[in-house]
Specification:
The complex is a heterodimer of chains A (528) and B (334). With 528 residues, chain A is α+β, with helices and mostly antiparallel strands. Chain A has 18 helices and 19 strands. Chain B contains 13 helices and no strands. Classes of the chains: A alpha+beta (528), B mainly alpha (334).
Chain lengths: 528, 334
């Protein structure tokens, strides 16, 4: 009898019989989170699992856009001198109640101040615990930018800045600025286990943490106290599946309903599948080839422009991006405000390029093209791109050699001001602000660092710096458009491509929106 | 026997020291820097870089770092992961049962199929069955694991829908770890559905990981059987008029097993190596997948600690095999 029952049980499993459950959405995530405190990390995988699900910020990017909208702060105002930003907080925001924490009060100004103090106040126990390793906060220079944070009343917080900074509010929509519960973290400190904040997170977000099985799955359930109302799905599971091919198989088998980062080669097949919808959107990114403008002959704009004209960018889009991208002409993507559509790109014209090189006195040029060793969201295959460039350049008499290094080494060496040749690299936006591209990647401050063309051109730099201090977005957009004209004339880069982001989801999933900033959020997502 | 044990044990010491040197230097020989990888395109200021390097202890000489590692190791402290900041030992121990469960399942599968297949091939030597078994086992041995895994997933999971694509248990179940073995823990929790689900999830990765050991065991059993079948005492047994079944099962197989047991023991190392690929394909949350992630992030403490622990386990298993061999065959004790 027992044997019969066992056989029946196994048969039932084979037939896919499963217990009845609440409405569960399974997301085949691409990797394991490093932890659950978003202030400590910089990886998108970690943010998806922490800040996008469990936490909220003062402000947020409107879903599917880079527009900043209210979140925990219902409104804010910036003083005339741009040095004071005052946030008015909602009074109906409650931290999550879980097995390990029950909040005794609603969110207030103390939590907001605590969130930033723990990342900048050397005396804060969490600052000490992390040894100040708040890399995103640091890399956005928030510590230098924020002079003080004051509690005006329980629901009003005032930030005083050291210098006017227009992108500041957008920065606060970024993951590192997720609001932590002071009450919870104090409780952990009192219990002598502050590190649990990174393992058992408490936030105010749409989902609350249930448990994490290392490298296997993260479970969340809908936060019943969420200030925008309970989510349509009851449970959310991140099934960690690092191989893109396996993610696709799981999606087809219905073991998960949403998967990120498909293999570009699989996208066409996915589009043919009746059970799958492939969402797509232009990513907020750019891939570029940066010349070292401090080294001859790349110090001459006419040489750089000639090389740009020798490279057939459309061929790269067709062969490397397999159509999943568009030719870039500006350093910022077209979906970003301030994009200068009137800029004319240097057209592919090998004959003219050859002539221009001759006119500039450049003959028998030998150069290196640096190809990244890794695939990035903005560049599916740098090696192949470099090979196409090499072939194009040989047609105008330039002998290009392809070099590559291990990724960390590549990033380090390519920053060197004495580096040779031209580097293939790219960028994905952090906060939807043009300054996050043009200021970081092309400003004089970035030379020897993120500015891989080592290009410090005063007329451009002054425009960028001025735009950073203005509050009026239209005024700023005008300055950025002028800056893009100068950029095109000076050509420190060959702007290569803006890639397309694909997101395959099963047909029964509704309400999913692609985040142009590359995150994955399940707020408002339902299963029919 | 005790002396034999001591000799074998003392041989482990230099091997273990060698392993620590290899594990320590291996990850450092690879180009790449954990801090630069973490910073990505965003970059990091020279000042902050130096600060982080000092915090992680990488500004000290390699010799000092090595002896620090060795000192920690003797105290059972492998340091903390650079990524998760959790103790490496905890990270390893929380994942190792998953690898062990999969490896044991794979080994059981390999033995259950490989042993009879080898016996059959030996008995039917030169016949079609022999050629077929040996042909299939050679194919299995030469199969790239990654390709084989994907092929099985496409057929059994995507097309036929018989097995899950990946993972360790259905997400509908959450079993609190007690032993870390999902099958045992689900039984301890009294959840029959979870037990069946965990068995169901073991099938494909178990087959994939067990394929190469299966081929090795089948081939070893065959050649060992053939060797014993040619012995005088087997001929005597036959001459006495014993049944063919009895000659093979009692007189031949039992003696042939000695070398097969050694080969099975040696498979443990191969299983752990094979687990790295199998776990990656099947999203199996064991040490293989963990090591791959740690290597790609240049998480020095995790890689060196993980390598030492894996090597330690392989060494212990080999010691046990040596001891078992000594028990079976007393002549080699001397």
């Amino acid at each position: 009898m027992k044997k019969t029952l066992l056989a029946a049980g196994i048969a039932a499993m084979m037939l896919g019989a499963t217990p009845v459950m609440a409405k569960t959405l399974v997301y085949c995530s691409e990797g394991s989170p490093e932890g659950f405190d978003p202030s400590l990390y910089t990886a998108g995988t970690t943010f998806d699992a922490s800040s996008k699900t469990i936490y909220n910020r003062l402000v947020q990017f409107k879903p599917g856009t880079t527009e900043v909208e209210p979140a925990i702060a219902k409104s804010w105002e910036v003083s005339d001198d741009g040095l004071k930003v005052t946030f008015h907080l909602r009074d109906d925001v409650k931290f999550q109640t879980t097995d390990f924490f029950t909040p005794s009060r609603m969110l207030n100004a103390d939590d907001v101040i605590w969130t930033f103090e723990r990342q900048m106040d050397k005396e804060n126990p969490y600052y000490k615990l992390a040894n100040g390793s708040f890399e995103y906060f640091n890399s956005m220079s928030m510590g230098e930018l924020i002079k003080s944070i004051d509690k005006v009343d329980d629901h009003t917080v005032k930030f005083e800045l050291t210098t006017p900074n227009a992108p500041f509010v957008a920065n606060l929509a970024m993951d590192f600025a997720s609001i932590h519960s002071k009450e919870y973290e104090q409780q952990l400190l009192d219990e002598g286990k502050p590190e649990l904040a990174n393992q058992q997170p408490i936030g105010t977000g749409p989902f609350q943490f249930v448990n994490y099985r290392e490298d296997a799955a993260i479970r969340y359930k809908a936060n019943p106290d969420y200030f925008r109302g309970k989510q349509p799905i009851d449970d959310l599971v991140f099934a960690i599946t690092s191989d893109a091919q396996v993610r696709y198989q799981k999606l087809m088998a219905g073991e998960c309903q949403v998967m990120p980062f498909p293999n570009p080669a699989d996208v066409d097949d996915m589009k043919q599948n009746d059970d799958v919808n492939v969402l797509q959107e232009a990513g907020l990114n750019v891939a570029y080839l940066a010349y070292n403008t401090q080294m001859a002959p790349f110090d001459k704009p006419e040489v750089r422009k000639a090389l740009n004209m020798a490279i057939n960018k459309q061929a790269i889009i067709d062969a490397v991006f397999q159509g999943a991208g568009e030719v870039a002409k500006n350093p910022i993507p077209p979906s970003m405000w301030g994009y200068a559509d009137e800029v004319k790109d240097d057209q592919y014209d090998p004959d003219k390029a050859k002539q221009m090189l001759k006119d500039a006195g450049v003959e028998n040029l030998k150069m290196n093209i640096w190809a990244m060793p890794v695939q990035r969201p903005y560049m599916p295959n740098a090696r192949r791109t470099a090979e196409l460039m090499q072939s194009d350049l040989s047609k105008v008499g330039v002998d290009a050699q392809i070099v590559t290094y291990e990724w960390g080494e590549y990033l380090k060496r390519s920053s060197d001001t004495k580096r040779d040749g031209a580097v293939i690299l790219g960028w994905t936006g952090d906060n939807g602000d043009p300054d996050n591209f043009m200021g970081v990647l092309l400003g004089c401050d970035g030379v020897g660092g993120a500015n891989r063309s080592q290009w410090c051109y005063k007329p451009f730099d002054e425009l960028i710096k001025k735009a950073r201090t203005l509050d009026d977005q239209d005024e700023r957009a005008k300055l950025y458009k002028q800056a893009q004209q100068i950029f095109k004339e000076q050509a420190p880069w060959d702007t290569l491509a803006h890639s397309t982001v694909f997101m395959p989801i099963r047909k029964e999933v509704t309400g999913y929106k692609i985040d142009p900033l590359g995150g994955h959020s399940f707020e408002g997502v339902d299963i029919e | 026997m005790f002396k034999f044990f001591l000799v074998k044990l003392s041989q482990l010491v230099p091997t273990f020291i060698g392993v620590t040197i290899v594990a320590f230097s291996f990850i450092r020989l690879l180009p790449g820097d954990p801090i630069l990888l973490m910073a990505g395109e965003r970059g990091i200021s020279a000042e902050r870089y130096a600060q982080l390097k000092s915090q992680m202890g990488f500004d000290r000489s390699l010799v000092v770092q090595y002896f620090d590692f060795l000192k920690g190791l003797l105290h059972g402290d492998l340091g903390n992961s650079l990524v998760t900041h959790a103790p490496v030992m905890n990270e390893f121990l929380s994942r190792f049962p998953a690898t062990l469960e999969l490896s044991l399942f794979a080994l059981t599968f390999a033995v259950i199929i490989g042993l009879p297949a080898g016996v059959l091939a030996a008995v039917k030597r030169g016949k079609t069955l022999d050629h077929s078994i040996m042909g299939i086992s050679l194919t299995g041995y030469s199969m790239p694991i990654f390709w084989w895994g994907l092929l099985l997933i496409m057929l059994f999971s995507s097309t036929l829908g018989w097995t899950p694509v990946s993972g360790r248990i259905s997400f509908l179940y959450f079993i609190e770890p007690v032993t870390g073995f999902m099958t045992i823990d689900s039984l301890l929790a009294g959840d029959w559905g979870a037990f069946l689900s965990s068995l169901h999830h073991l099938i494909l990765p178990g087959i994939v990981l067990g394929t190469i050991p299966l081929a090795v065991i089948a081939r070893q059993t065959r050649s060992s059987m053939l060797e014993v079948l040619g012995e005088d005492y087997v001929r005597s047994a036959r001459a006495k008029g014993l049944s063919n079944f009895r000659v093979i099962m009692v007189h031949t197989l039992r003696n042939a097993l000695i070398s097969v047991v050694t080969v099975i023991g040696l498979q443990v190392g191969l299983l752990l190596a094979g687990a790295i690929l199998t776990e990656t394909i099947f999203s199996w949350p064991g040490i293989g997948k963990w090591m791959i992630d740690a290597i790609s992030r240049r998480d020095y403490p995790s890689v060196q600690g993980g390598l030492v622990l894996i090597a330690f386990i392989v060494m212990i298993v080999n010691l046990l095999v040596d001891l078992a061999y000594g028990v079976i065959n007393p002549r080699i004790r001397h």
